[in-house]
Please model this.
Amino acid sequence: MENNKEIRFDHKVIVDLIKPNSRVLDLGCGNGELLELLKINKSVKGTGVEIDENAIYNCIEKGITISHGNIDTGLIDYGTKRFDYVILNESLQQVLHPQKVILESLRVGKNVIVNIPNFCHIEGRLQIFFKGRVPMTKELPYEWFDTPNLRFLSLKDFRRFCRVNGIVIEKEIPLGYKNIIGFLPNLFARSGLYLLSKQ
Amino acid sequence: MPPESQQLKNSIGIVEIKSFTFAAPPNEMTLECGAKLGPITLAYETYGTLNAAKSNAIVVSHTLSMDAHAAGYHPDDKKPGWWEEMIGPGKAFDTNKYFMICANVLGGCKGSTGPSSVNPKTGKPYGSSFPIVTIGDMVDTQRKLIQHLGIKKILCLAGGSMGGLQALEWVVSYPDDVASVIAIAANMRQTAQQIALHEVMRQAIMTDPDWNGGDYYGKKIPARGLALARMMGHITYMSDQSMEEKFGRKLFEKNKFDYNLSAEFEVENYLKQRGDNFVKRFDANSYLYISKALDYFDLAQGQDAAKVFKNVKANFLVITFTSDWLYPSYQSKEMVKALKASDIDVSYCEVASSYGHDAFLVEVKGQSHLIEHYLSRIQREVDHGK
Model:
């Protein structure tokens, strides 16, 4: 990595997954850090979709191509297999129609990279069991009344979703804070990163 | 009155208007309507310096009622050009880096050939014998100016409203001319609502007896009609919210109603003043012709919108404003969709603003940020031959 700033672990794992010179669409790209990393390290041709106006300004400042809009309706504009990768990094749980978004992403992209926070991490399970309250963790830091997350799922739930929808999981990478979780991922992974494809 | 030194501080300063004349008979230009026109003069201004490679030129196009004077001050002006806050040293369109060109459109009345110009064949102003011009004709004439200046590749075409339409028409007609486009508050075709508004404005002018079939030069001008058209225009440039904030129900120079038919509310007085001022600086026939040129604008020309940009290679930045109901965001989004369908690199931002269509002139901060950084990127990519 050429960048001096400390790079988020999930970003590092995603950058490693992506082949050089690919065409990438990052849905819910925020301030464009990941796209910038991909541009610098993998020479990708990247585009982002983002709902927040200030984030748009930050993306343009980084020289990133960005479209102001929401993920739920933003995909229809793109042609079939227009991208090598469509990335949904911790944004899928915030969309209104996740099934439609995943399937649309698989239409416009050859591969889809999804990272979902694991609602069934042991920390959350313990909070539910002992406190009797909806869990608040580093990945899910919101109160129930102000959370942007609309969907709560585990790695197991996502695997089942893929099976039912005919989506091929080419890779599952369960993530901790700064490491990959090999042992009982549905219990110990903070999030699940997936490389997906569809025939 | 000359500008004060404080005003000149962050400005390009004193600028001069230049002109370029071409298409002298027998080499008249054939317009889209089939008529031949010549000689044609374009009044224009430039700011900044054209580099040796002639690779830093940006063409800014103006709106219905503006002119070539986009920035800086004329020696006797108290007020600067219409996009002063965006064009100048260190500003979004940084004149330390870029060579900016702005020309008065064909059909205009601020130094370019239009209905108020003298027809050399008759020695009298054209009036309504002036041929109908289109956005495409405006582009073709500006293109002649760019060629005259020796510029082969334009770094960026930029404009808001009708200025944006010219940029779009240009890149679609001549895709190899330009590296990038900044289209602000612009759409791919004029809509029924826009045409309807223009027609009401035109009727205001043409039903003024002083319009006299377009032949009023040297006589009484159709001031009432033109002022009325401008009043109408101003309503379309503001939003419900900006009018409410600016005027509300305030009365003009009084505290209670007089219960008569005079203009009592502040908003009425504002529109009247704007109308009256406009008459002093704009020609009624130019208003008719330019609004008509707008109505004819349709990039797809009735065909499939997704195919409009199929030969275009330029990079795009599209900007809209949330409260603009004259050029609503959804229309620009249709354009963004068509651009994406043609695999064109396009960035889009909908800036939150309560100023309506006027926002592109007054929302300086957000626009400046977007444009400044976007242009730096385009310059970088052009320099690296990407």
Notes: The domain at 9-119+150-197 of chain A is CATH 3.40.50.150 (Rossmann fold). The helical segments of chain A are 9-17, 33-42, 53-61, 71-74, 98-108, 122-131, 155-164, 185-188. The longest strand of chain A covers residues 109-117.
